Amino acid sequence: MGLQAKPVVSNLCTFRPGTGAGGTGFAHALRLDYTGRLGTFLEDEILARSCALSPRALANLTGLLYGSGAHAKSRAALQLRSVALSKLCKFSAAELVDLASGLTNAGLMDRDLLHRLRTACDALFEGDRREVEYRAAMEKNTRKLSAELGREKSATWPMAPEILMDFASTLVLSKPPGWSCATRRGTKKDPDGEGRSRHGEPPLISEYLQSLDKERAVSQDSSVDHGLTHRLDLETSGALLTAKTFQSYWRLRLDFSTQSVKRRYLALVHGALPLGEWQHVNLPLQLTRVPHGDSGRSVRSKSVVSHDFGRRGRAK
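Above: the chain sequence. Below: its structure as tokens.
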């Protein structure tokens, strides 16, 4: 197992959870490792090498350690947390968000750690002049980007979003149903990328943000999702927190990754439910792999929801 795992462990520095880049072989192998041997190897690697690993590798390992089912108070988990804290000043904003997500999922987040992560994130943007420089460049641009362009485009969108609250560094938008929180549009069905309803594609919140303020650097920057910090499903309406500065974007992303932002959903249903049949569910959920086949392992597996593990989910 060690010889097979080492090549994929060496790719940890380029693997970012959720992107499928670089080290997906290890993540995939971890999911299919019903024996737990690969998870044990992962813990051994952390104990042996964590002090020498880069911030990206530390952030990746935190997520992978949680995925391996390691106990939150295991030696490997506590050592990984300690080493990461000692190197916080070397983390990028994206690495801090990934680290925070992994630590939270692994049950290693507390109030003091959250404060240290927020402080490290804010420190990255001290003296950041990107917004000022972008506005200065826009003023020199001979092409007048008038607000009418945004108004004209918004007029072609059905049920355009509304601004609920406008703060110094954040906007709260009211997202109508039918609007997509995807940040990119496919080129085949919508080659113009205009998000108009005539293309048969849902309009994008990111395009609305771009048209809302042409002089706001974050709104025009796809690397920070045009300021969009979280998602709602296509047919779901509700409040969206969006950022007006680079600092607020990463700070909000950090707070969402640590589950510091509380979200409440209201579902409208048809019909009536008799009194006394309401039930309150407050159980943590986990997707558990169920192997099929005589050998106990196969290329096809099913995932089922089990309880008593992971994040706590509440429903009524």
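The two ends are 45 Å apart (CA to CA).
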